[in-house]
Amino acid sequence: MAVRPFLSARGVRKSFGAVEVLHGVDLDAAPGSVLALLGENGAGKSTLVRIIAGDLRADSGEIALDGVPHDVRDVAAARALGIKLIYQEISDAPPLSVAENIVLGAWPARRGFVRGRETRVRAREVLDALGVDLPLDAPVSSLRLGERQLVEIARALTGQARCLIFDEPTAALSDAETERLFEVIEGLKARGVAILYITHRLDEVFRIAEEVCVLRDGHIVLHEKVADAGKDQVIEAMVGRSVERRARGREEAAPGADRPPAVRLDGASSGELFRDVALDARPGEIVALYGKVGSGASEVAEAIFGMHAVDAGALHVGGRRVRFRHPADAIAAGVGCLPGDRQREAMFRSRSVAENLAAPSWRAIAGASGLVTRGREAVAYRRWHDRLRIRSRDDPEQPIWTLSGGNQQKVVLGRWLERGSKVMVLVEPTRGVDVGARQEIYRAVRSLAEQGSAVVVATSDYEDVVELADRAIVMVRGRTVAEFAGDAIGVEALTGAAGGVIDE
Amino acid sequence: MSETLTQRATPARDASARPRGRRRAPETIGLLVFLVAEIVFFSVQSPYFLNWDNWGNIMTAVAITGVLAAAGTLLLVAGQFDLSVGSGVAFVGIVLVQTAPSLGIVPAMALAVLAGLGIGLLNGFLVTVVGVNALITTLGMLGIFRGLTLVIGKGQSIFIEGFDWATARPFLGIPMPAIVLVAVIAVFFVLMHFTVYGRKMYAIGANPVAARLVGIRVNRVIFTGFLLSGACMALAGLLVTSQLGSSSANTGVGLELAVVTAVILGGTSLSGGTGTIFGTVVGLLIVGVLSNGLTLLNVDSSWQQVATGVLLILAVAVDRLRQAYLRKAG
Questions:
Q1: Interchain proximity A444–B5, CB inside 8 Å
Q2: CA-CA to B229 of 20 to 30 Å: which in A264, A363, A438, B118?
Q3: In Å, how far from its chain's centre is CA B303?
Q4: Which contiguous run of DSSP H or E holds residue B243?
Q5: In-domain check, residue B11
Q6: What is the 3-state secondary structure (H, E, C) of A118-179?
């Protein structure tokens, strides 16, 4: 390499419990250059950069700056060395002003009193250096997301900043905001900052990075100058193993292919979330919405469940045009939903598995008597316990939080089986579940379709799509960019389309 | 059709032979032990304690708090508070005693009940429609209705004639307030543990986001909860006015704290989602027995307040430690 690296990591290993997620990784970041870090979910990207930024400790390995080994004990130690990680989630203090947020944690103070004027002067300096103009006295809560991210970057630039790490910074940004971020990164490069840039998007790599590094299953599998790397080469490195397609081929059409769609979207839009989306799913069919976080795929699925209003175009369920104002309307129309954030959106942690499963069906369980008893809930629970292979004590009263993630997911799925939903909306169904449970969830979703439900799966995991979908719709930034059916659904086609690269 | 989802579940199990695993002890077991210890202690210390009439006294003493605590448990299970109950009771009482002479008892009672429901309606409206936090809403209402009671009653104690039903002992010498309390507890017990509405309240308290996503119209359900709390205020207001034969601006001062004490002592989590009416009854009796017993032992009432305060903190502290232990074990 022509330029001597500023930061070099050697032989970094890290295990969580018994599982080693980084198997001795080497990485170099040169000043004034962008190193793009790619890899699928769980490849170890975030773990690696958190170790570099002092947020996690490596089990073994060495991190050297300018050739001198350092013990990056914690975040404060890393910051003192000029290494700063800008997280994907914004972590600002919304009610405070832009200026106060920029100096947050490093207030210019005299004898314990913060000096207001000095605060503004310093904030102004940093923003000028970034080449952006933001209202210093406005509360950050009044800014747009992209602007808040700039404030985060500005904060990272106060004091010494020699290596900046971005973790998927554009995931939630608009095109214009992304452009502005790229300009800022070009400026940082010119100032000699070493940049590590985690992304899922190939087009960004070729746009701003000098080098590209692909991580897979805790190993570096590709490290190449961007100029020398081909897109195909990068995709192949990321995907590695071939993911077999186990879903139905085109010939074995879904049983309900001749029936009218159970759910249909016609040019549907919802605010800023998605625009002009068309989709239909027949009984027995599994349709996937594939897209990265922020692509709008989840939001389209959620709109079918009444979580977002469809404000242009139309939503039809069961052949009838509907306007859902509340998920209760969707449930009444026969739609069920496995939400993306199970802990926050689906689970009643402190309540029993039976109660969790019975929740949408209480009215039916109560029947004419109007009474819901634990016994009746237990009957409903037992109906699905074995069929879904829920692994638990044989006790309907067991609190749901005592089950593993995959089994919790099965209870939530059972909730809609009991309810008899004709349209199932699944958002990120395999997020945070282990490999074994993943297969069981696939099996359960397929059975759901075979029983005549129309299934819509929104996911950012191509494996879900390849395993399940009869048809797949790829979304980028709130719009549909590609559609595949049957055997045309492949990993390369999907990731290519979602990365904004559509093969001719 | 899928063979996995449609196949018959394994041959019908004999429910009684099914392994129950470790049956969890009821959440309130610790408190129940404490209550029994209290009873044993006082029955040893005072010969009057186990007397039938004395139990009538205890029940009468906790009746007002108990009626309100039933609704308080329902609300707290959904993560909601009603601090306006003390003032509400006073307002109901003053409406009753002010209007009874001119309207007659029954119309005045109807008006008083409407007053209680009105307060519940206002609370519910502010919390669910306007979106003001329940603690703040009902704290504001506590001040407003205490003040309005003072304005209407001009700070006087006003007597009421022919309204002494609550002093009756219709059978077995059981005082009327005790009967009312048992009836209210029974109604709330069924409501909370055997109806769809009760299940919804638990779901909302356990996770309001998930509750919405299983089709629960969260605001409507909570609104009804505040309305029920208003109904209990009305009932408690009628009860206390009849017991005293009068009402004044000082009626029910501090009741909201007694209610919260009983509910929390009974094991309902401050963050909602767990808690039972049975627990609240135990919490209620722990406080009632304590103050009754200490009175029998001639302990000054100021010290009784100290004891109640210590008890509350102790109970919640123990609960915290227990939960931390459970989390670690899980």
A1: yes
A2: A363
A3: 24
A4: helix B218-244
A5: no
A6: HHHHHHHHHHHHHCCCCCCCCEHHHCCHHHHHHHHHHHHHCCCCCEEEEECCCCCCCHHHHH
Count of domains for chain B: 1
Do A220 and A304 lie in a common domain?
Answer: no
User: The tokens of B308 are what?
Assistant: 């109640």
Q: CA nearest A414 in B: which residue?
A: B5
Residues in B closer than 8 angstroms to A417, CB to CB, are 5
- Residue A277's domain comprises 263-498
Q: What are phi and psi of B8, to 5 degrees?
A: -60, 140
Is B21 at the interface with chain A, CB within 8 A?
yes
Residue A149, min C-alpha distance to chain B (Å)? 27
A229 and A122 in a common domain: yes
Contacts of A339 in chain B (CB under 8 A): 210, 213
pTM of the full structure: 0.76
Decide if B41 is inside a domain.
no
Residues A235, A299, single domain; the answer is no
Contact A337 B213 (CB under 8 A): yes
**pLDDT the model gives residue A245:** 56
Residue B62 lies inside a defined structural domain of this protein: yes
Residue B209 sits at the chain A interface (C-beta within 8 Å): yes
- A vs B, Cβ pairs < 8 A, gives 111
Supply the CATH number for residue B305's domain: 1.10.3470
Out of A133-147, A205-219, B217-231, B285-299, least confident range: A133-147
- Same-domain check for residues A231 and A315: no
Quick check: is A446 in a domain?
yes
Are B195 and A359 in contact (CB < 8 Å)? no
Which of A189, A204, A239 is the last residue in one of the domains? Answer: A239
Chain A residue with minimum CA distance to B207:
A348
For residue B200, the distance in angstroms to the closest alpha carbon of chain A comes to: 8
Residues A58 and A201 in one domain: yes
Does residue B4 lie within any of the structural domains?
A: no
Q: Where are the beta strands (DSSP E) in A260-381?
A: 263-270, 274-281, 286-290, 312-317, 320-322, 335-338
Q: Is B20 a residue whose pLDDT tops 50? A: no
Query: What dihedral angle (degrees, nearest 10) is formed by the CA atoms of A98, A102, A106, A111?
Result: -30
Largest CA distance in chain B: 77
Residue B18, min C-alpha distance to chain A (Å): 8
Residue B21 to residue A417, Cβ atoms within 8 A: no
Q: What is the pLDDT of residues A351-391, one digit of tens each?
A: 999 999 999 999 999 988 889 999 999 999 999 988 888 87
List CB contacts (< 8 A) between B5 and chain A.
387-388, 417, 444, 447-448, 450-451
Report the gap between the CA of B87 and the closest CA in chain A (Å).
33
Number of domains in chain A: 2
pLDDT of residue B23: 43
Do A204 and A349 lie in a common domain? Answer: no
Environment class of A159 (CB within 10 Å of its CB; exposed 0-12, middle 13-18, buried 19+): middle
The CATH number given to whatever domain includes residue A143 is 3.40.50.300
**Single-letter residue type at B238:** L
Nearest residue to A378 via CA among A393, A406, A357: A357
How many angstroms separate the first and last alpha carbons of chain A?
35
